[in-house]
């Protein structure tokens, strides 16, 4: 099994591409889903967020108000760094659990949906391939304003808080251009999925595990032989 990172920019269409890969039968680990899970009431990250940002980031039912917290961290980079320091360790733990489950299922490759992959850079060394979902800046602005009901100024601020998409494209192994019709993006994703399924990059880890298990089995067999009384 090998790991493939999927990233993009805000309103680039990454979530739609991720859903398409799931429909194609790919194993997908969605960091956004994990991030929402680990900040639920009762989890350590929830308590630390309230301690750091105050009760004003809570809804009446005790859940984190994602809009309020999002507005706060986009306007203050130091606050964004503080939130990342709280949530990233917990997110990584859950990602490791999900990745191990996929390995046990015999998956050839797993897609890790990581919105800020290049901004944090912490997981890059574990990835064999990186996919970037791209769209041109004008399209990105329009989509973001329509989706979130933002003004042009606020939408530009959100986009500028991330690494420019053109820079991410230069660091990617594969680029899915989502600037135009969805049918074009879908065709690109289907072709890429077929290419990844044909790849033999899953073999080294699988063979390594098999060799390791064989070694352990041999050791246990010899140990048992040594411990058994002679006839």
Automatic annotation (TrEMBL):
<keyword id="KW-0067">ATP-binding</keyword>
<keyword id="KW-1133">Transmembrane helix</keyword>
<dbReference type="GO" id="GO:0015937">
    <property type="term" value="P:coenzyme A biosynthetic process"/>
</dbReference>
<dbReference type="InterPro" id="IPR027417">
    <property type="entry name" value="P-loop_NTPase"/>
</dbReference>
<comment type="similarity">
    <text>Belongs to the CoaE family.</text>
</comment>
<keyword id="KW-0418">Kinase</keyword>
<keyword id="KW-0812">Transmembrane</keyword>
<dbReference type="Pfam" id="PF01121">
    <property type="entry name" value="CoaE"/>
</dbReference>
<keyword id="KW-0547">Nucleotide-binding</keyword>
<dbReference type="InterPro" id="IPR001977">
    <property type="entry name" value="Depp_CoAkinase"/>
</dbReference>
<dbReference type="GO" id="GO:0005737">
    <property type="term" value="C:cytoplasm"/>
</dbReference>
<dbReference type="GO" id="GO:0005524">
    <property type="term" value="F:ATP binding"/>
</dbReference>
<protein>
    <recommendedName>
        <fullName>Dephospho-CoA kinase domain-containing protein</fullName>
    </recommendedName>
</protein>
<dbReference type="GO" id="GO:0004140">
    <property type="term" value="F:dephospho-CoA kinase activity"/>
</dbReference>
<feature type="transmembrane region" description="Helical">
    <location>
        <begin position="203"/>
        <end position="224"/>
    </location>
</feature>
<keyword id="KW-0472">Membrane</keyword>
<keyword id="KW-0808">Transferase</keyword>
